[in-house]
Amino acid sequence: MNKNAMLERLFFKLLPVQILIVAMGSVNLIVDGAVAGRCIDSSTVGVVGLYFSMINALTAVGAVLLGGAAVLCGRSMGSGDLEKTKSIFTMNLGAALTAGALLTAVSLILPGPIADILGASSELRPALITYIRGYAVGIIPMLLAQQIAAFLQMERQSARGYAGIAGLVISNVALDILLVAVLKMGVWGLALATSISNWIYLVILVPYYQTGRSQLKMGCKHIDFRVLGSMIAVGAPGAVLVFMLALRGITINRILLMYSGNDGLSAQSAFSMISGLLYAFALGTGATLRMLASVFFGEEDKDSLRRLLRMTLSKTVPMSLVVTAVVLLLSGPVTLIFFPDKTTEVYRLTRQLFIICSSCIPFIVLAQVIANYLQACGHNIYVNILSVFDGFFAMVIPSLILAPKIGALGVWLANPIGIALTLLLSLCYACVFNRRFPRGDDFLMLRPGFGVPDEDRLDIPVRSMSDVTGTAVTVQDFCEKHGLDSKTSLYAALCLEEMAGNVVDHGFTKDEKDHMIEAHVTYKDGEVMLRIKDDCVPFDPMERADLLSGDDPLRNIGIRMVSKLAKEMTYQNLIGLNVLTIRL
User: Fold this and answer.
1) Helix/strand/coil (H/E/C) assignment for every residue in 150-163
2) 169 and 28 in contact (C-beta within 8 Å)?
3) Rounded to 5 degrees, what are φ and ψ at 445?
């Protein structure tokens, strides 16, 4: 196993859940659109398409909380502050519940004005009002489940996340068939099916936090309203992007109606329903990178940030080419889901849009990696600017220029043009931040003094017990070269050797998987810090030492020795990694 293997394995363990979280919304919309067109009437497909901008607005609210919580939790976990992480968890769920209740009330009380804002015609307005009210029932569980799914990943509960997603999709399909096809409840049944499936999703996720096994707890003692302000400030860029996408959708719909009529609007509506599925890989990649980068940023681990960025780009961009090829091959069959007559203009326009936009997926992956990395590393002002530009102006301005001349094709071509402009803007920002054209570590976009210099850092990969035996001399030499006395240097060597050996003895043998330890030794401000990371089953050596401190003094003597020598010793399980930090 090479140096990057553990990081790569962790990344691709987290990625599938993030992709599914993004994709599941599209799956529900596709099911709703197909059922609407086949069991109600073709105009109802337009109703579902019009509501897509409202879904973006709802997602924007959740994105504020989720984006901010993910970054702040990563930073606090990385710095070893579990109490602050619990406070973020409590405020996140409390804010999501409050926001969900308010949005539910607005949707139930003011469905008419919402329908007007979404651009409903007089013909579609009554059906859209009904759909808005039915969907309102599921807003609270939608927002809460969105948050909880991310926290479950941090606690190594991806299997529960998969189960929740499966329950969501299966229940939505079954309820659509029951309420619409069998019971003939029309638009109301269509919306209600989605709302009930959102509640089922939440019910599957929540029980883990009632088992007592979770690291994160929710309670009054963890309430800190200052956290809410930070959460909103950090999470705003992601929310701004989603909000601007909602505004862009409304604007693009009006441009299409003006220059290409109902066929252009119908093609765009069909694409909107499936766009989350097409772009799920790109958006999931960005979300996974942000989660990991936030932890490494909190640890001030420059080397891990460098490896994460390099690994993400080298692995996911080539993978996105495969995704693009698959989507191109499926563009015809997917179009037939919505428009079964290949001879119509709306079929031609829809397939044309799918082909153009699917070709952009590799560039969208690159844009998502850049935006989410910069958000994790605290570039909030720029990411807000980028969100507004990418979410609205980068596509709307080319559409306004091209649509009067070439109709719907002008709007379709605005997609690749907008992505190119977004990437160019990010390159310009990197030049301004570094005050030169970026090269090498300039692309990390880190402030001066971040982390420790390479000469004050020691990285030791451990794959077996033979590697452990060599760490003591290496660590002792490192400490003595930095001016520490022989006693402290020896303690540091013994601590690392003992704890790494413990992981090899107990962690490596728990399953048949190939494991590795990343041991880091840093010297800063006259203090030595040891950090041991492994991907074995969760194990808390501090808890083990506390439990056994009053028994046989020879039992677990090594762990007790380390706990007594350490100035501070903390353990966390971060997004699938055991992280033990020892300060001497």
Assistant:
1) HHHHHCCCHHHHHH
2) yes
3) 55, 45
In the chain, % helix, strand, coil (3-state, to 5) comes to 75, 5, 20
Whether residue 555 is predicted with pLDDT greater than 80 in this model: the reply is no
pLDDT tens profile 33-75? 778 767 787 667 778 777 877 887 787 777 777 777 767 766 6
Burial zone of 433 (CB within 10 Å; 0-12 exposed, 13-18 middle, 19+ buried): middle
Nearest alpha-carbon partner for 48 in 140, 136, 128: 128
- The CA-atom distances, in angstroms, between 222 and each of 76, 77, 87, 91, 240 are 14, 15, 5, 8, 28
CA angle 91, 97, 100 (to 5 degrees): 135
Task: Identify the residue whose tokens are 């844009």.
Answer: 367
Domain spans of the chain, in order of start:
5-442, 454-583
Predicted confidence (pLDDT) per residue in 478-517, tens digit: 888 888 888 888 878 888 888 888 888 877 777 777 788 8
Based on the number of CB atoms within 10 Å of its own CB, is 511 exposed (0-12), middle (13-18) or buried (19 or more)? Answer: exposed
Local confidence band at 557 (pLDDT 50, 70, 90 cut-offs):
low
- Alpha-carbon gap, residue 66 to 145, rounded angstroms: 11
Residue 199 C-beta-side C-alpha neighbours within 13 Å: 10
Could you tell me the end-to-end alpha-carbon distance of the chain, in angstroms, rounded to an integer? 30
Burial of 459 (0-12, 13-18, 19+ CB in 10 A): middle
User: Please, which residues have CB within 8 angstroms of residue 109's CB and are 6 or more apart in sequence?
Assistant: none
Question: Which is more confidently placed, 363 or 50?
Answer: 363
Architecture of domain 454-583: 2-Layer Sandwich (3.30)
* Contact residues for 495 (Cβ-Cβ < 8 A; gap 6+): 530, 562, 565, 566, 582, 584
